[in-house]
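EI: anyone free to look at a 510-residue chain?
SC: sure, send it
EI:
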Amino acid sequence: MNALNVAVIVVYLVGVAWIGLRLSGKQRSASDYFVGEGRMPWWTVCFSVVATETSVLTVISIPGGAYTDQGFGNVELAFGYIIGRTAVALALIPLYKRGGFVSAYQYLQLRFGRYLQGVASVTFVVTRLLAEGVRLFASAIPIKLLLSEFGVTLGYDIIIVALTLLTVVYTYLGGIKAVIWTDALQMGLYLLGALIAIAVLTGHVGASGWSDALHAGKFQLFDTDFDPAHILTSSFALPTAIIGGAIFAMASHGSDQLIVQRILATRSVRDSQKAMVASGVFIAVQFAAFSLVGALLWAYNDGKTPKELGLSSADGLYPDFILHGLPVVISGLLVAGILGAAMGSLSAALNSMSNSTVADIIHSFSRREISDLTMLRLGRIMTLVWAALMALCAMGFSTTTGNVYLTALAIAGYTYGALLGAFLLGRIVKRANEFDAIVAFVATVIVMTFVVRVVKIDVTVAGKVTEKGIAAQWLVPIGVAVTLVVGGLTSRFHPAPDPVPPPEPVEAVA
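SC: here you go
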């Protein structure tokens, strides 16, 4: 039985990499390698965006949260994300596509100059290295436990290296097209896994189980506690989820090259906009599916706490059901889906980091013209370099303290406001020049470091006062405000620069 499950996992992992390479074809240019020559179907790009932002932790933590006290709060968050993605589709995507960019930060070069472009790119790759290194190590934790149930005992380092090697093969050879196609396949598998789990659980608990979960508040969608302290510290408070979530999505999907790169691979502005907005809808569907798994698991386990079930945390509920509640082969396929979620986020990070390094740093600061073939070779070399650094970073976290782990997870809070703020400064404050933008960028990172690490708010829960940090969704609006204020003030001390001509329109690929 264990051997059959392991065989399913191996066949899936090898097969999905092979399919991705076959569908990607031969890479003939840097544009082909980084944005697929702008020829990818919008629906595959949509699925790739969803897979890129879905890690192993997403797959296992949302059911755990719904099981305990979050209900369908993640779906509430998704509503804010849809609003933010719609704003990006209308305000930023036309700029990127008209300019024929392969990186979002090329707009910053056009508007301000190459130094701000370089600052933004370095900020992106450092942020992504830390965040994805943590994600990779965190992904290895449940994977190790799942594989051990199948009789395969591997250390964290071996799992990290194996995942990195397998992912880098199709990322190195197939570029963004291989990444997008494999992402789409992997998203389909783990979403199918959630639907299978829902069907099996429904068969166990029946209509009465759904009713019990409903009356226990497991389907609660909106958090209507409007206490100011709760709003500032809880990701699920209604204003936080909708307003903060929308602005957070504008940063994560409008100024983060990890996502923007996929959007630039579509055929036209219209296709890019469809992919962006549809990804928000699919995220809501995905969050609803995983939340429903958690609610039905609560009914399946008669409302027992994770500790009563012998689990260390709620994150173990869904993996435990996969291993012990599903038939052989199906459980192996769902474990493969969890592995696929890890590979999807890793491949996306590697390709986007390589893209930004080559386009925003090497190409922009080179004193001589770099041929397209050289750019392609550099892109592949940087994919290998970042893969090695990512694996080393992930293995380093296995021996560090929890504080470093949490700091790396929250790293987006330090930088997202500055990144989105730089784009908005260029669009809103016409007097701002490159010096203003760099000063505002650096000032924002300094201020946000203080906000994330120092600012705490007293929150009263069940009569007990505890200190909590500001919710991640509010960090981006704060950062954007700092960038616009600082950049706007410094721009008053010099004449307005000459207006920057808009980028020449690029023909849509038929």
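EI: The domain at 3-401 is CATH 1.20.1730.10 (Sodium/glucose cotransporter).
SC: 👍
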